[in-house]
Every structure is written in structure tokens, then in C-alpha cells.
Amino acid sequence: MRALLTKIEQASGLDRVGDRLQRAVQATLRPQRVRDLLHGVWLGHPLHPAMVQVPVGAWISTAVLDLMPGQRRAAATLCAVGTVSALPAAVTGLNDWAALARDQRRIGLVHAASNSVGLAFYAGSVAARMTGRHNLGRTLGFLGLGAASMGAYLGGHLAYKQGAQVNQSISELHRMSDGWHSIADMAALPERTLITRDVDDVSVILYRHGDEVTVMLERCPHQSGPLGEGEVREIDGHDCVVCPWHGSAFRLNGGEVVHGPSGNDQQILPTRVVDGVLETRLP
Fold it and tell me: Quick one: pLDDT band at residue 1, thresholds 50, 70, 90?
């Protein structure tokens, strides 16, 4: 399986379909607040992993009930619940997929195709059960579970091997030593300007607003973009840093994500001022 996954990651032939689908998704899922909703900005982490729990749970339960006597009605109900709930889960997944790197999109495309086959089998299963063809419905359900399981395997590879929608910056904290670190003289910090500094080789950004200074991890949690090269914009009355790569925006007074494609907040570090020197440490 590892060799197959590597081949998919390197399959440039998928890009023609993938690029067209990406443009279609980006053109359809508008405006920005719709994409933010689907990314899970309001939730503080990606929405898609939470959404898929309903169809996955319903379909697995359907398979269990199909193996038990006298459970036709319950199995049919759960099969229908899983099939209907798979549609919004797919939309959130497509929204996340459209903002991924190309090698991730290749795996994601096959992931989506496998899940689409599974969804088609389950839709047929629902139709068969509703018309009294329960044996056919069970058969189609098990075929759907097989296809969806392959899709889940690919989704796991996408998230845990390729890091899609996983917080890319939080591991930086593991490279910082304990204790307070001096990073800048307060008198030398300009107002409302992004400054980049290193703490134990971990890049952070500093942003001063009056007597308050924010120290934030510099790597964007979405795809590791350099927030220090981004711009500061006022969004909903808050100063925010906007990633130059994909446009994710984070509040500089708290780290909350306000625009996707990131679904994760950005880590803010504690600060203090000692004898005019700004210091920071691990949270």
C-alpha cells in the first residue's frame, strides 16, 4: 500500500482533473464567509473531521445491523442517515481540499473518488431497501462500506502522513526550552509593525500596539507559510496578520483564526517586560 500511495502522490496525470475541480470548487464556494464556515474557522479547528463521524458511524452500524436478524428497519434508517449526512461532509472536505498543496490534492482526489463510489453504493442501497429488495440493499451496503473504508484509509494518509489541515506550527513549541527568553528591547519596537525574531531557532513574530506586545509563532498553521512576510489588516475591528501564501488571517491580540483556509488558531506566547526588555516563554 505504501508504494501505491507514493505513486498516487507522484501521479501528475491527476493534475488536469484536479486543477479543474479546484477552480470549480473555488468559484462555487463563495463568498469568503461561506468558505470560513466550511473550514471550521468558527469552531477553532477543521470542521470536516467532525462531519465525517456521522456517515461513518451510521454506515458501520448499518453493516452490524445487517448481520443481525429482525433489524431491517433500523438498518435502513441508519443507511439513509449516513447517505444524507455524507453530502455536507463531502462539501467541507472539498473546501479544505481546494487549498492544499498539489501532492496532497492528488491523494485527496482519489480519496474523494473512493468515497463517491461508496456514496453511490449506499444511495443504491437506500433505494433497494425502500422498494423491499433488502438482500440487494445489504449487498450494496457492504460494497459501499468497502469503498468508504478505502476512502478513509486515504484520508488518514492525507492527514497524518501529508499533514493536510493539521496544525503545522504547534510542533515548534517542542523545540523551545523552558524559562523566559529575552527577545527585544521595548524601546526599539516600532508601533504596529511585524518584527521577526528567533527563540531557540523557533521563528516568532512581534507586534506592538501601545504598551501591549504580541509574540506569535511565525509559521502559519495551515501550510507553514511565513506570517512574518504577511501584512497587517484590520478585520472586524481587530488588527490581524494575513498569511502571504493562502490568505489565512489571525487576530494579533489573541491568535484566533478569522479567515481560512486554516481552521486552527495560531499560538500566542506569554510575555513580560523586565528592565525594558521584552521576554517570552512557552505557554
Answer: confident
pLDDT above 90 (res 125):
yes
**CA pair distance 96, 157, nearest whole angstrom:** 15
Residue 180 is predicted with a pLDDT of 98
Provide the residue count of the chain: 283
Answer yes or no: are the C-beta atoms of 106 and 161 closer than 8 Å.
no
Closest CA to 155 of 32, 249, 24, 55: 55
152 pLDDT exceeds 90? yes
Q: How far apart are CA 174 and CA 170, in angstroms?
A: 8
Q: Is 175 left (phi over 0), alpha (psi -120 to 50) or beta?
A: alpha
Find residue 274's DSSP bridge partners.
Answer: 277
Asked if the bond preceding 261 is cis, omega within 30° of 0, the reply is: yes
Q: Indicate yes or no: pTM above 0.85.
A: yes
DSSP per residue, 213-263:
EEEEESB-TTT--BGGGSEEEEETTEEEEE-TTT--EEETTT--EEESS--
Q: Residue 112 contacts by C-beta under 8 Å, 6 or more apart in sequence?
A: 90, 93, 94, 97, 151
Contact 262, 249 (CB under 8 A): no
